[in-house]
Amino acid sequence: MINNKLIDLLEVKYPIIQGGMAWVATAELAAAVSKAGGLGVIGCGSAPVEVVKDQILKVKEMTDKPFGVNVMLLSPHADDIMDMLCKEKVNVVTTGAGNPGKYIKKLKDANIKVIPVVPSVSLAKRMEKNGADAIIVEGTEAGGHIGELTTMTIVPQVVDAVNIPVIAAGGIADGRGFMAAMALGAEGVQIGTRFVCSDECIAHKEYKNKIVESKDRDAIVTGRITGHPVRIIKNKLSRRITNLEKDINNKDEIDNLTIGSLKKAVIDGDTETGSVMAGQSSGLISDIKTCKDIIEDIMKEASELKEELCKF
């Protein structure tokens, strides 16, 4: 079931990539996921190059397994970070919030696999044409910054449109989601919210508990009028943003309100006025455990489901 192109490409045991979440996807989490057989990913967010380099060196001290770095292309440090990644020769670079076309040749010349996150068929086709090694297709069920199309609908459309491996993301937290992604034609999955609720994740315990305690309708979309919708768990911040969104003239106030709000939740544990970014899979998560247990449980459930499906 798991001998596929993506495993060969990434040189991992399981086709599971950990999402590159800002403030959350640190060296500790990335190393734990990689040691457990997946591909751990450091999330750059808007951090300067020195901070990202320190995280890379830390992962290299913790494991000799392949790992990746997620670069947010809107970051003012993106150019410097890309140069540093080439020098450090990381295994994989994933990208978000833009088109990484101008960096792809440089990264590939450094023998780095390039895997952009895309929300549409058109961008997926462009990334394949530009030389991307694989594509992460993220549905609107994901946490943080999102697009409009669902994982169920966009993944098979991209699979039909490109010839490189497709990785499904958004709403996946267990073996059932993994098998659903495979049925849609994906070669692997990217998982974010489930890994937030891991022992190795440095996020504040209140942040993790907020996800564990959430229900099916608690992960909502905020900030649509700003042009940058974000999925977070309902709290005082989300209610304030929702009220402000009734008037389009409040765009700047919403932007100002959310500055630093993710750090406030992740690091300080303020889950009421901070931004608890999490996906709709939050309702599936009921505990906090090691990355190793998370991955092994996903693969065990997926294997059992495959056996059941083969009976039909």
What keyword list fits this structure?
globular; alpha/beta; single chain; 14 helices; 312 residues; 11 strands; three-stranded antiparallel sheet
Note down, in words, how this protein is organized:
- By secondary structure, the protein is an alpha/beta fold.
- Helix 3 (49-62) runs parallel beside helix 4.
- The longest helix has 19 residues, at 291-309.
- It has helices at 5-10, 27-35, 49-62, 78-88, 101-109, 121-129, 151-161, 175-183, 193-196, 205-213, 236-244, 251-258, 261-266, 291-309, and strands at 16-18, 40-43, 67-72, 92-96, 113-118, 135-138, 144-145, 166-169, 188-191, 219-222, 230-233.
- The two termini are 17 Å apart.
- An eight-stranded parallel sheet has the order 1-9-8-6-5-4-3-2. Strands 7-11-10 form a three-stranded antiparallel sheet, with helices on one face.
- The model has no long low-confidence stretch (mean pLDDT 94).
- Relative helix content: 40-55%
Low-confidence stretches: none
Average pLDDT metric? 94
How large is the radius of gyration?
Answer: 18 Å
Class derived from helix and strand content: alpha/beta
The end-to-end span amounts to 17 Å
Which range does the strand content fall in? 5-15%
Number of helices: 14
Multimeric status of the protein: single chain
Largest sheet: 8 strands, parallel
Number of strands: 11
Looking at the structure, what is the overall shape? globular
Q: Give helix and strand order, one letter per element, not per position.
A: HEHEHEHEHEHEEHEHEHHEEHHHH
The largest beta-sheet arranges its strands as 1-9-8-6-5-4-3-2
